[in-house]
Amino acid sequence: MIIRSKAPLRIGLAGGGSDVSPYSDIYGGAILNATIDLYAYASLEPTNDNKIVFQSVDKGITLIFDSQEVLPVHADLPLHAGIYNRVVRDFQCNPLSFKLITHADAPPGSGLGSSSTLVTTILGAFVEWLKLPLGENDIARLAYEIERLDLGLSGGKQDQYSATFGGINFMEFLADDVVIVNPLRLKSSLISELAYSTVLYFTGASRLSDNIIDEQKRSVKENQVAKIEAMHKIKEQAYLMKEALLKEDLNEIGPILDFGWKNKRQMASGITNPLIDEIYQAALSAGSTGGKVSGAGGGGFMFFYCPQNSRHKVIEALKKFGGEVRAFNFSNKGLTSWQAK
After folding, report:
1. Together in a domain, 52 and 81
2. Does residue 225 form part of some domain?
C-alpha cells in the first residue's frame, strides 16, 4: 500500500502579514488568497523493517532513523520529523515504520507558501493512512501548531488554511486563534479572466522570510506606530479586494495591488530591494496596473495584474531580468489524499 497526498500552493492577493501574531491577536487580520495548480506532494509507504525513511526529492536529502516515538528534529528536514512526533504524541500511536517521499512544484522561500503547504500535505498522508478523526479545520489548525508552535518557525496562519481548503477565500484571523474561512462564489469566467490577466514571475532567488516576519512582530510589540498603520492599510486592502471581486470590477484589481505594495514596503526592511523595485517598475511601464511580491517579500515569486492584452508586453519586459514566467491556473480543490493502486 502507498498513500499519496497533494495540496495546492497559493497566491496571496491581499492582506498578507495581517495574519501574523501578535498583530492578528490585537487588531484582527484579514487575508484574501487563491490556490493555484502548483502543488506539494507526499508519498507514504508503510514498511515492516522498523525504520523511518524521509526523502526530500527537492533537496536531494534522505534521512534514516530507527522506529521510535520521538525523532530528533534534524536541521535538514525539520518538518518531516515535527509532523511525525506530533501525530504519534496526539494520537497515541506506537512507533511507526514507513518511507516518506516529498517534493513540491516551487522551492522553499518562493513566497507561495510551499513550506506550510508541505506540512499540510504530509499531515494529510498520515490522516489517510491512520484514519485519524480530523476534518479540514482540524488539519489546518494542527498544521499551524506543528510549524509555528512545535517547531518555532516564523510565519502567519493563512498558508495552512489555504492549502487545506483550496479555492479563493477571504479569511479572518481573530484573537484566541479563531480563524474564519469565507469562500468567494465567483463566476468561472471571472476566475479565468483573473488568471489570464495575472503574470506570475519567479525572480530566480528564494529567500528566508523569518527575519522579515520577526521584524513585523517586533514592530507590533514595540508599538511602532508607522509600521502598525501600514499593517492596518494592508488589512484594508483585503476588504477592498474582496469587494472588487464580488462586484466583478477587475479594473480595480491592479490599483488595489499597488495600494497594498506601497504599504507593504513600509512594514519591514528587506521586503524589497533595488532589483525587485526595478522589476516592478518595468512591469508597470509595460502595462501592468499593479502587483506585489508573493509572501513576506525579499525575493521568490512576484505577480502582476495585466489588464486587456498587456500581459504579453509585461512578459517581454521581464525577460531582461533573467527570471521565469510560470504559467498557472487557479485551483478550487484543497488537500487531497488517496491510496495508490
Report:
1. yes
2. yes
The contacts found for 240-248 with CB under 8 angstroms, 24 or more apart, are 240/14, 241/13, 241/14, 241/15, 241/32, 242/14, 242/32, 242/170, 242/184, 245/32, 245/168, 245/184, 245/186, 245/190, 245/194, 246/184, 246/186, 248/187, 248/190
Model-wide pTM > 0.70: yes
How confident is the model over 103-130, as pLDDT tens digits? 999 987 788 999 999 999 999 999 999 9
pLDDT at position 208, please? 59
Question: 76 CB contacts (<8 Å, ≥6 apart)?
Answer: 56, 59, 61, 63
Q: Quick check: is 338 in a domain? A: no
The runs of H, that is alpha helices, within 22-77 are 23-27
pLDDT tens-place string over residues 288-301: 999 999 876 667 89
Q: Does residue 184 contact residue 168 with C-beta atoms inside 8 Å?
A: yes
Q: Is 258 a catalytic residue?
A: no
At CA 156, angle to CA 227 and CA 331, rounded to 5? 120
Which distant-in-sequence residues (6+ apart) come within 8 Å of 104 by Cβ?
9, 38, 39, 40, 41, 58, 114, 117, 118
Check 37, 58, 138, 159 and give the catalytic one.
159
Report DSSP state, residue 13. Answer: E
Which of 46, 21, 61, 148 is CA-nearest to residue 98? 46
335 occurs within a structural domain: no
